[in-house]
TrEMBL record:
InterPro entries listed in its UniProt record: Glyco_trans_2-like, Nucleotide-diphossugar_trans
Family designation: Belongs to the glycosyltransferase 2 family.
Keywords: Glycosyltransferase, Transferase
Pathway(s) served: Cell wall biogenesis; cell wall polysaccharide biosynthesis
Record protein name field: GT2 family glycosyltransferase/glycosyltransferase involved in cell wall biosynthesis
Organism superkingdom: Bacteria
Length: 800
């Protein structure tokens, strides 16, 4: 008998070693000034999380029709530390992170590049930590949508940032699972857009700055008087005028300024003998300079950028025990007013520096006090805050309850799919066996490893009581009741099901779409088989078509439902009076509604279902008797007649004539444009331009798209199949002879159908090679040709 595969251990609690990787989409490169992005990345790496740090430059591939393999060939990797890799992605153009926006082709090439990274390193569960809104179109395009936005600055305050880049920030904040902010000012602004925001201030690598024992750097070794020092960016927010005024007033002080001076007018201090512009210094050398400082300063001007900043250098200055003088910054007043001299004018700043120089030698305990503050604000502490946030908001503990009664082959297949290498990283699986008489009990008893726990009942308690027993053993924040005759896909199905529960307290229960379910969770177009479940190519297309979509419902099929455990405890266990099964799901949905909660179908989550594997083994008369008894019990309990649930949400599902198609069209969204797309006759797994055009059209809220194609991922299209919320595939163009289109779009096809009627005809010139369009134009003289390089612009123009 095939053994269970990939059994892994999982401890309970928010501090457990939940396995996940980090992809960092940075604002600065790894080898630039050593700041929060690199410090936190190193903390994750030290604790066993692999970190993939994306470089700020990209490989430019100018070819518009480059294939996926060609793009992926140019992706670069470089290991720079234990568990840390630098990754250079590919785009269509060279991109400036602070000035440019990605276009459609950039996003496609970047997405392929990132998918290549995930495949090459077998990345399964990961968190995208985004430092700059520039990356928003890429991270939101990925199917595994775990985003943490690290909001470190008021980006509008940087003169190098273009306004279009800034506009991406609100979208990023809204899409992120959790938002980190480095200051109270940022936190107050961000939490209005995303309540899952956490204040995580900066910190210091205390051992790096506190333990210096070497000699002073050469530039400072011969100075005998006081050294007033600063390191960091010297840009337009740095008050160089303040430095010049003090340097002229106090020629006996030496001002050592370390950092690039891009964006700062330094001509006024360049000729002053007591001002040293030392340039950028490596992170490894900074402690030597800092230990020679007699006073460390933070001379920032007052603007929106500096008012929102929490300076990393503050923690590093204090780690070295140095006295600090700063201009007024809200963060310093909030967290270090008893350790930092705050000066609000040039005269007050100079006086504060003089005061610290005169009293520092007489107060050795002050240095210990500063170091103690730094010790309680290390990057290790900040990692713990981030890890807890990730476990709480992205990978909360989930308890999956499975009830079995015989059918070991189905149970084994279900468990193997749950325990695959890319499984959800923080789960427990509770298997309740209802008196199986085949090998199920023996096989389950052999499972001594977590995360699988087994509960054995000597008798068949039934579906309702078995699930309730399993739920009573659960320790997760969320429950998933899962039939044993299911095959779950990659790890995304769990986060997708629980996310509505995380975001809306009035939603108690969610369910996925499936190939086999007795209500409108059923899909009418599915590619897969009983061995592997969903076809991987079809699944990726399905995810893309339905990305982020949910809809409210009054009924969920209990082949797979996710429930917030607190709601389950409030509503109570399933009704045991339904015996071995049937109608208990209808009943529980009524109880959820009665308790004032909502239920939603998560349309971009999918679970394969064989369908009633256990109940089907009942004899026909026994099955019918059970159905009638439970139906009667349900109707008497709720004082209502049971209604047959709706089927798949495809208005064309049973249409076999043009007349029926015309009548079914009335069920489409009123006011939407009806668009026919005529591309190639085979939809492939390579995202050709015409397929991208279809997807862009189908994502619009104002149109329904019909695509004429004969095969989809090498499988025949028969009739009219629903592939997305507003996307339909058909191999029967004749069925639309009585259907009126608002727009027919030619994107590769040269065939003109006389029976098709449209108000307008458009053609995408980029889908035709030289000489191909002429014959089409001669047959269809009213067609409008567009030569837009970007798919999105073509869509906009064709609807103008």
């Amino acid at each position: 008998m095939e053994p269970l595969q990939d059994l892994r251990t999982a401890k309970s609690g928010p501090d457990s070693a939940v396995p996940y990787d980090i992809i960092r989409f940075p604002v600065i490169d790894w080898d630039f000034r050593w700041q929060r992005p690199q410090q936190l990345s190193r903390q994750f790496a030290a604790r066993g999380h692999r970190v993939f740090y994306i470089t700020t430059d990209v490989v430019s591939i100018s070819e518009e029709r480059a294939a996926r393999d060609e793009v992926c060939r140019y992706v670069k990797f470089k290991k720079v530390d234990r568990n840390v890799w630098l990754v250079t992605l590919c785009a269509h153009r060279r991109l400036n992170l602070y000035q440019d926006q990605m276009d459609d082709l950039d996003i496609q090439y970047l997405k392929w590049s990132l998918e290549h990274v995930l495949a090459k390193f077998a990345v399964t569960s990961y968190v995208s930590i985004v430092d700059l809104p520039f990356w928003t179109p890429l991270v939101t395009a990925m199917n595994r949508h775990n985003i943490m936005y690290d909001c470190m600055d008021d980006h509008a305050g940087f003169s190098t940032n273009h306004a279009d880049v800034i506009h991406q920030e609100d979208l990023l904040i809204q899409k992120a699972n959790v938002v980190l902010t480095s200051s109270q000012v940022l936190h107050q602004r961000v939490r209005e857009l995303n309540p899952s925001s956490i204040l995580v201030r900066n910190a210091a690598d205390v051992s790096h700055f506190a333990g210096w024992a070497g000699s002073a750097p050469a530039e400072l070794s011969s100075i005998t008087g006081p050294v007033i020092g600063y390191y960091g960016a010297i840009s337009d927010w740095f008050d160089i005028g303040l430095i010049e005024a003090m340097a002229r007033n106090r020629p006996e002080w030496t001002f050592a300024l370390i950092g690039h001076t891009f964006g700062c007018e330094t001509s006024g201090v360049e000729q002053l003998p007591n001002v040293l512009l030392l340039g950028e210094k490596p992170y490894e050398e900074l402690p030597g300079y800092l230990h020679r400082f007699d006073c460390a300063i933070i001379p920032f001007v007052q603007n929106n950028l500096t008012q929102a900043t929490n300076p990393v250098k503050l923690y590093e200055y204090l780690a070295a025990g140095k006295p600090v003088v700063s201009t007024p910054l809200p963060e310093l007043t909030e967290i270090a007013s008893d350790m930092v001299e705050i000066a609000d004018s040039p005269g007050a700043f100079e006086a504060a520096v003089e005061r610290t120089l005169s009293i520092e030698a007489a107060q050795p305990e002050a240095a210990r006090f500063r170091r103690k503050f730094a010790m309680s604000n290390t990057w290790g502490h900040r990692y713990e805050m981030l890890h807890r946030a990730i476990v709480q908001h992205i990978f909360p503990k989930v308890s999956i309850v499975i009830v079995t009664h015989n059918n070991w082959s189905f149970t084994r297949q279900c468990l193997n799919s749950l325990l695959r290498k890319d499984a959800y990283p923080n789960m427990e699986i509770i298997v309740v066996d209802n008196g199986s008489t085949d090998q199920t009990r023996a096989q389950l008893a052999a499972l001594a490893q977590k995360p699988v726990q087994t509960v054995f009942s000597p008798i068949n308690l039934g579906f309702a009581e078995g699930n309730s027993l399993g739920a009573s053993c659960a320790t997760g924040e969320y429950l998933i009741l899962l039939n044993n005759d299911t095959i779950v896909p990659d790890s995304t199905w769990v986060p997708k099901l629980i996310r509505p529960l995380q975001e809306h307290r009035d939603i108690a229960m969610t369910g996925p779409m499936s190939n086999h379910v007795g209500n409108d969770q059923a899909l009418d177009f599915f590619i897969g088989d009983p061995v592997q479940g969903a076809d991987p190519g079809w699944l990726q297309e399905f995810y893309e078509n339905y990305r982020g979509r949910t809809r409210e419902t009054g009924l969920l099929g209990f082949f797979c439902v996710a429930i917030r455990r607190s709601a389950f405890e409030e509503i109570g266990p399933l009704d045991r009076h339904y015996g071995i099964g049937m109608f208990e799901d209808d009943d529980y949905c009524e109880r959820v509604k009665q308790a004032g909660y909502r239920m939603v179908i998560v349309e971009d989550a999918f679970v394969y279902h064989h369908g009633s594997a256990t109940i089907k083994k009942l004899k026909s008369q026994e099955y019918q008797s059970l159905w009638e008894r439970n139906k009667h019990y349900y109707e008497a309990k709720w004082n209502k007649s049971w209604q047959l649930p709706k089927g798949p949400l495809n208005p064309f599902n049973l249409s076999v004539t043009p007349e029926e198609v015309r009548e079914a069209a009335d069920a489409l969204h009123s006011g939407e444009k009806r668009v026919l797309v005529l591309g190639e006759l085979s939809w492939s797994d390579e995202s050709a331009r015409w397929q991208q055009l279809v997807k862009q059209l189908a994502q619009r809220d104002d149109c329904t798209v019909i695509v004429y194609t004969l095969t989809y991922l090498q499988h025949p299209v028969v009739g009219i199949r629903k592939a997305g919320p507003r996307l339909y595939l058909t191999n029967r163009i004749d069925l639309f002879s009585q259907f009126s289109f608002d727009l027919a779009v030619y994107c590769g096809s040269q065939q003109v159908f006389e029976e098709i009627h449209a108000d307008r005809y458009a053609a995408d010139g980029k889908c035709y090679h030289a000489g191909q369009f002429g014959p089409l134009a001669s047959k269809l003289p009213e067609v409008q040709l567009y030569e837009e390089p970007e798919v999105s612009r073509f869509v906009q123009q064709s609807f103008a």
